[in-house]
Amino acid sequence: MAQGSALVDRAGTTMSEVVGAIRRVTDIVGEISAASHEQSLGVAQVGEAVTQMDQVTQQNAALVEEMAAAASSLKSQAEDLVHVVSVFRLEDEVGGAPMGQPALQRSRQALQIQ
Length: 114
Known about the structure:
Helix content is 82%, strand content 0%.
């Protein structure tokens, strides 16, 4: 009978140890689950940030294209304006450039500070 009682005591102790180990495993699994959830949220935030950066990059690329087109148009307009203005001649300009020099060049010279 004493042997049976000792076996029951050891079985009770073993069961208590098993229950304690199960609680520790349950706690660890809970921590892993919480960490996985936090990591999932972090990955989602990174994904959103990358999407926003992609959108901004596309907008910037579109703006660069628009600016390049505008610069090209302005260059063309400036060339046309230079051509149109170059046909004008000033008659007698005292101390100015010789007759026949395009007005734009004379105007540039007149604007230079001595």
